Amino acid sequence: MDMKKLAGAMLALAFGVNVACAADAAPRTASVSPALEKYSRDALDKLWRQPDLAPRERSIATLAILIARNQSAELPRYLNRALDSGVQAGEISEIITHLAFYSGWGDAMAAVAPTSKVFAARGIGAKQLPAASPKLLAIDAAAEAKRAARVEKSAGPIAPGLVRDTTELLFNDLWLRPGLAPRDRSLVTISALMATGQAGQLPSHLNIGMDNGLTQAQISALINHIAFYAGWPKAFSAVPIVADVFASRAR
Amino acid sequence: MDMKKLAGAMLALAFGVNVACAADAAPRTASVSPALEKYSRDALDKLWRQPDLAPRERSIATLAILIARNQSAELPRYLNRALDSGVQAGEISEIITHLAFYSGWGDAMAAVAPTSKVFAARGIGAKQLPAASPKLLAIDAAAEAKRAARVEKSAGPIAPGLVRDTTELLFNDLWLRPGLAPRDRSLVTISALMATGQAGQLPSHLNIGMDNGLTQAQISALINHIAFYAGWPKAFSAVPIVADVFASRAR
Amino acid sequence: MDMKKLAGAMLALAFGVNVACAADAAPRTASVSPALEKYSRDALDKLWRQPDLAPRERSIATLAILIARNQSAELPRYLNRALDSGVQAGEISEIITHLAFYSGWGDAMAAVAPTSKVFAARGIGAKQLPAASPKLLAIDAAAEAKRAARVEKSAGPIAPGLVRDTTELLFNDLWLRPGLAPRDRSLVTISALMATGQAGQLPSHLNIGMDNGLTQAQISALINHIAFYAGWPKAFSAVPIVADVFASRAR
To answer: C38: nearest CA in chain A?
Structure first.
């Protein structure tokens, strides 16, 4: 065995490790279920071409669903799809930060590693990311005062710290960050709530979302999108809640 | 240092990487909790020997629970146990595909990699997997017409796309695939609903499941099984819903 | 190329693999979101300094939340923080075992690997872990008889196996293990229930927890803690349930 052969063998060994890792990340679906491969191709492609939600909105919703359900395996594919569909890197950065608060810190932190890799592979650097402390959007002081009073009344006596942080961190800070439009923050929030079956908080965020510009047609299309990415039961559980909100706004 | 020693050292290094990966996959439970090791041996073994659900049914339920909860770490062990208990590879393929719809695409996709490895290790190939588009079971047209009318009435005005896909993809396609008996599809569906706390959709699927042949004794045993694999609170939350369905069918 | 250079190259290759693994485990949050890095530093640090829950209690709650939500990525950081905050290794062992029953076997098993690594790195061995079958705490026979009768009445006819295991494994065994104080078991249980949105079982465990010594102020602070680690919606969903229990105990 000469040195070249040895080096080759060692390279193959090292390469073998990498190949094994790559194989873990991208297994062939058909080796387990030809039907799942077919549905992934046909049914999902048909879903993404449905009207009322553009691929950009579907990408935002899908990222929110995957991160809120802690499903990092599928994240790289949909991060790339989002960037290819017009979602800006800075918006993805804000989506992850938003979900730290609306889905839990661990979900956001788990999204950092796969997102960092995708950003690096596409040459996305610090310049394309929102500042930690940007100039905030103007606040609607009257609406915020009403919201704060309502939450203080319902939750203040039981969880004063939660009420304080909700005002300071969420409605006077996070929601005013300019890197993601309020309508898209609502899309992220509602997607996460539906995807994790958080029925209790859905009505208020459906109302905020429609105030922020989401339409009934978009929310209907979102329910259909949720069915595929968070399961049929989550979609059907959202239907009566959405129906009640639509009805209450029609009055 | 001669070449043999060098090769040995390099192999050890490379091997060390593999050992580290293997150690990640199979840590010694007792190094963290001797009690958990004891319960895993005694309490789980006792559970699997309880009457009313055979190891084959417990395997199907456990796979559904693990996939619906996105717990791929435990999946290889229970995939092998399922195959050893009489669950066919083709049935596992169908379980994963079924859960894409009933638990979310990401859960099914996350199950592909570990399942692919187990199938490869056991020499399970394409011939043992159901075709992507097999000849479907005959549909019960009268029952399906009633179901479709009921869902159209409740969800049609809010989520027409969801209602269309429910008919086309689920009840005129997925549920008629011959690779998994309708009774076992119900077992998968009910297990996933209980394991993820989806109370809202449980009554209709308990009724479908009992129409498909699941017995009260099996569902009672399933609740006990759910306690161990999805936690006691999920099991207790299912009890009053199951009680209502049993009572309604006794009338 | 001489042998030293070759060895160096091979080491670099092998090291490169390790570096890649390390990078996966600890990505730079700022490369994805400078804002998330800022909030992780400022908002979380402020949270941990809030009164009513000491760092030891916050550590126990955070471990319960992460394990119950199957978020092993963040686990090593908080295992180390717990050990640095006065949580004993034996208590961590009991927390994981407790969650096998209260969150599901797969969640506990997924916590074994990262915990085993942290224990090994800190030289924590078998001597510091609770025995598999220790001498149990004395049982409050009168309270247990009332609990058993209540559960037998509500769940006995539907799920007799569940009722039997609840008595034998949980209230005559797990809860009496001396390695974790009953108050801390309640903190673990309530944290897991809030973090996974299990509203149905929360009232009874809030009552058990307050009987075990948890105060209203601690539970209020826990709701605030839950907001960060399991998301704002989970915290707000817990508020009315906690309010009802507080009110019922004030009567």
So the answer is: A132
